[in-house]
């Protein structure tokens, strides 16, 4: 066989090997798969487009971390903590590393400073003067979990951590709370979530709705104090997973979240899409009410003038005029499962039932207003007086669905949401594994005969003949939880070479983890041949 045929056969064998490794890993856990990312995207407001920014040596992939932007050094993005979980769920751990992205030079740097917070997720972090202030979070292991209410400060000039010890009674331990800066330079902590064990293997969660003020004492460097405050107004209902941003008038904006209804062996969530504002100067909550588009207002005025009375008034008062609208969407998953998402919207005004001499456009025909669907953990940002809302997640039965839509709301006008990127059901991401890919792969293998299987051993033998990239070695005693983040970029390159450039990102991640695991296991086996087992592998 010529070199060309040999290379083609080797390519098929490499892909088959990667697929088999990937399948072995995925079979270890059929219940759920988790995919984490360390990609960086920038949304251009003027061009209305997303751009993926490739910067070498980024932080390892993670979720539930915190990111804060500060103006120092031409602009910096600081990231702390978070958690990692492998796709099969066999590896899970929390980070306690600190990274900075220098926006001017587009370079990542890991800042190593002792005395910082322990590894955690769900904490909150804000920029305060020339410091980063961090509060709370949680740490979970296979045996136990712990929630925090400690406070740390990181000095952006000296790159040093210090643990604060505020006086007074502060919040109980929690994660996922609101943490914002007031115009007076104080810090607000609101809400959050925690759980505690009530008896063996039974935990009970708490959705907090209390509010605290963290204040730096005048004239006392490093001295802080806690004060509990009780705001008035239309308070949000208890919830977790809500999103927070600061409006142009220094009010804190709160969107959505989920209210969990817990029983001993079940947990159901009621997802929300309401909007609330907290005014720290007046210490008062306000419900975010949209005024509606101007065309709708004009139509209502015309409707009132043209109202003949009698029959039309009675028609306007009919049951259908006051009933809320139920919007139904169907999302089809990769395995063909159809999930129906129902969203109840407020009824259009009575004017929607009145006649007008003018031709009504879609907005004037009683069409339900556009707004983000109920969700938790959406991302919020305010720029030029506009609120941008991206993604989030919701549950449909036993499934968790991630969203990638993008909305915009003018906070000065408060009229209506604008859709910038619609939800595409075809690109919907399910946070649960289906067997469709494996079934199709097995079917292809049965139809294709055993040629590739016969070539697999030859391919593996040849893999070391032609000079390929050398795999990073495993240090003696190194855990896989440390090895994978350190070498992840290498294994992603190997996986892309194996499965092809057009493969879905989730398949590339699975293949990379499978290849790394196989190499790690082989190295660990060589260590233990003499009977000595490195720490952590017992």
UniProtKB/TrEMBL annotation:
<feature type="region of interest" description="Disordered">
    <location>
        <begin position="1"/>
        <end position="25"/>
    </location>
</feature>
<dbReference type="Pfam" id="PF24681">
    <property type="entry name" value="Kelch_KLHDC2_KLHL20_DRC7"/>
</dbReference>
<feature type="compositionally biased region" description="Basic and acidic residues">
    <location>
        <begin position="11"/>
        <end position="25"/>
    </location>
</feature>
<dbReference type="InterPro" id="IPR015915">
    <property type="entry name" value="Kelch-typ_b-propeller"/>
</dbReference>
<feature type="compositionally biased region" description="Acidic residues">
    <location>
        <begin position="424"/>
        <end position="468"/>
    </location>
</feature>
<protein>
    <submittedName>
        <fullName>Kelch domain containing 4</fullName>
    </submittedName>
</protein>
<feature type="compositionally biased region" description="Basic residues">
    <location>
        <begin position="1"/>
        <end position="10"/>
    </location>
</feature>
<feature type="region of interest" description="Disordered">
    <location>
        <begin position="424"/>
        <end position="478"/>
    </location>
</feature>
<feature type="region of interest" description="Disordered">
    <location>
        <begin position="289"/>
        <end position="323"/>
    </location>
</feature>
<dbReference type="InterPro" id="IPR052588">
    <property type="entry name" value="Kelch_domain_protein"/>
</dbReference>
<feature type="region of interest" description="Disordered">
    <location>
        <begin position="352"/>
        <end position="374"/>
    </location>
</feature>
């Amino acid at each position: 066989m010529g070199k060309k045929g040999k290379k083609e056969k080797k390519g098929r064998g490499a892909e088959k090997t990667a697929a088999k490794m990937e399948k072995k890993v995925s079979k270890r856990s059929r219940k759920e798969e988790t995919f984490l990312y360390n990609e960086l995207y920038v949304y251009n407001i003027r061009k209305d487009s997303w751009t993926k920014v490739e910067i070498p040596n980024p932080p390892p992939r993670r979720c539930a971390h915190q990111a804060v932007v500060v103006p120092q050094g031409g602009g910096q993005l600081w990231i702390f903590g978070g958690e990692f979980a492998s796709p099969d769920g066999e590896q899970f751990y929390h980070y306690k590393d600190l990274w900075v992205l220098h926006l001017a030079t587009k370079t990542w740097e890991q800042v190593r400073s002792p005395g910082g917070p322990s590894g955690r997720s769900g904490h909150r972090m804000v920029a305060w003067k020339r410091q980063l202030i961090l509060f709370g979070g949680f740490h979970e292991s296979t045996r136990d979990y712990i929630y925090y209410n400690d406070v740390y400060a990181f000095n952006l000039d000296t790159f040093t951590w210090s643990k604060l010890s505020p006086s007074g009674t502060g919040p109980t331990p929690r994660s996922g709370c609101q943490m914002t800066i007031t115009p007076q330079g104080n810090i607000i902590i609101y809400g959050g979530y925690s759980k505690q064990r009530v008896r063996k293997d039974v935990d009970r969660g708490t959705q907090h709705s209390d509010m605290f003020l963290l204040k730096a004492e005048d004239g006392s460097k490093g001295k802080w104090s806690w004060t509990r405050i009780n705001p008035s107004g239309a308070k949000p209902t208890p919830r977790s997973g809500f999103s927070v941003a600061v409006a142009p008038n220094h009010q804190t904006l709160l969107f959505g979240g989920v209210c969990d209804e817990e029983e001993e062996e079940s947990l159901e969530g009621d997802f929300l899409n309401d909007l609330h504002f907290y005014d720290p100067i007046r210490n008062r909550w306000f419900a975010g009410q949209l005024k509606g588009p101007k065309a709708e207002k004009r139509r209502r005025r015309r409707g009132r003038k043209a109202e003949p009375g009698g029959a039309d008034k009675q028609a306007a008062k009919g049951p259908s005029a006051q009933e809320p609208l139920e919007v139904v969407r169907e999302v089809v998953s990769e395995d063909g499962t159809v999930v129906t998402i129902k969203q109840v919207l407020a009824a259009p005004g009575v004017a929607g039932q009145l006649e007008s001499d003018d031709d009504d456009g879609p907005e004037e025909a009683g069409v339900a207003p556009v707004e983000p669907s109920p969700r938790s953990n959406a991302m919020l940002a305010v720029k030029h007086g506009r609120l941008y809302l991206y993604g989030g997640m919701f549950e449909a039965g036993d499934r968790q669905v991630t969203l990638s839509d993008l909305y915009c709301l003018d906070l000065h006008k408060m009229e209506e949401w604008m859709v910038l990127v619609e939800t595409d059901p075809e690109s919907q991401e399910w946070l649960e594994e289906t067997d469709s890919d494996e079934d199709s792969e097995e079917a292809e293998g049965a139809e294709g005969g055993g040629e590739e299987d016969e070539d697999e051993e030859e391919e593996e033998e040849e893999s070391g003949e032609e000079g390929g990239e050398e795999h990073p070695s495993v240090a003696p005693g190194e855990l896989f939880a440390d090895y994978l983040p350190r070498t992840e970029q290498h294994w992603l390159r190997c996986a892309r070479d194996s499965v092809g450039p057009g493969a879905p990102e989730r398949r590339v991640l699975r293949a990379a983890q499978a290849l790394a695991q196989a190499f790690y296991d082989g190295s660990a086996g060589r260590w233990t041949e003499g009977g000595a087992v490195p720490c952590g592998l017992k």
